[in-house]
């Protein structure tokens, strides 16, 4: 089969940073599904893994987490899917990725794809939806089944127009929360308001005074989606006592956690690959969450965040997608279709 | 009325570090109760507030949080208690304390004292019980109403024989958790086992290998009750993926929070004064929790952690109590009775 990979961690200017190659089609065993890929989306994690590291790989490493496609065979223990099912998933962190014609994925990480949607719109969703879902409904513990309790609660989503932000704003809005998202440019402000934000503030200026201008002394929840080093102090200032902060972006400098102590505030990391990386029993919740997300997409309660579509899954197109994300100003998701 | 107070933050050698003085009996208004104090307990917070600060007070500052006593009058909005009720409470951080003959306390922070117990045993309990209760049942979210889910879960309580540890081990045991507590001396090991710990390890040696010896690769929950600076790295190593860490002791150095990221682990501070300090609506939960704690004490499902009783609430005795806690090796609680 065709695949795109790399052997050394290189910058995009290097022609070997990502290259096309041929490799055998893998065989599904255990709870794996073999999926023929229709479309993939590119996430910041793709860029991060491609760029960082000093290893050299004997056989090329295949990147790619988001994907949709068709099940062509199933392992002997697979029970959730059958041949011919159209599926979507973000896979596992430590297995060969979706930048290929075929891919193996554990069925507990897979959902039936929503029906009646373009494949690009489907492929854009799994990683960001699962991240936003787990952050909001498992870490922050917003009640999605009974939203009456959420009406008086406010969430601040830092970087509302990014991949996770564009889904998190929608899910938070759907759950009845008052959603304040940060955005700094005309087009990101418009995008995030079109994706569920009630109000926006600019994270390139001091945020607390802007929040106060909107009539909020503090917020119940904060979802941090970029530059936690730069924003942590303000997050501690803006969070309500006993409030909850969840972050998906790691810190490079020490965070002054003591700032949260008088408020007994909670700090949670969300990494959607924790469950599969540690092979936790709760891996199955990713199947369950994707099934629910598919229904929300079908019912148009949330919409796809695909914003740029490129035809052809190959090294050249992937490099173009990586380059766009490296600018750090892309809006929504970039998708490559077969 | 008689009271004990200080005007400057001094070490115990200074005779003015704590002194007896006379001050008018205050008057209950709003939701306050005026309580005639029968017994008080001394906590590390008493020592910390007495020692740290550069302020000088015109009128003496009265310390003391834990107390039990009798309601002698109520404010016009008080609805939960009446004159003559025997009550226990840990009060608010920022109001005059219990080291006095009478004290005002907001009724939302007060419980009916358990019946049939010595006043010393009652006075020992509020602050540590509320802290342990909130840490376990509100922050870590152990289900106390349906304990069937807790049987397979393990909690590590660092410093099991201290004030909060001696209640937390009991409550965690009552909730059905497997309780591993840390203790380093023969007498603290015996004490913590008598207060609900199933097993102990020594926090003065590397903890992870000892945990492994007991058959545990990691634990679901960690309750950190001392030296988070010294223990944080090991806490991150020992916590289960998606596990929960709660700490009551503040950090003096930056904590490497990124260690928790791959595991998507949660970190929560517990400060039992957050609710009253910020006057949160959930202040009332401290009344509710104390009512439940009183029942557990009456039913002997948990026992008082009073371990040393001194007769007479005065400066001399308080200094002796402070001195004992300053050794950092006291077990259970020190109580002063009128």
UniProtKB/TrEMBL annotation, chains A, B:
Annotated ranges, domain Enoyl reductase (ER): 17-336
Keywords: Metal-binding, Oxidoreductase, Zinc
InterPro entries per UniProt: ADH-like_C (IPR013149), ADH-like_N (IPR013154), ADH_Zn_typ-1 (IPR014182), ER (IPR020843), GroES-like_sf (IPR011032), Lipid_raft_assoc_Zn_ADH (IPR052585), NAD(P)-bd_dom_sf (IPR036291)
A Pfam match: ADH_N
CDD domains tied to this protein: AL_MDR
GO molecular function, one term: oxidoreductase activity
Annotated NCBIfam families: adh_fam_1 (TIGR02817)
Family per record: Belongs to the zinc-containing alcohol dehydrogenase family. Quinone oxidoreductase subfamily.
Protein name: Zinc-type alcohol dehydrogenase-like protein
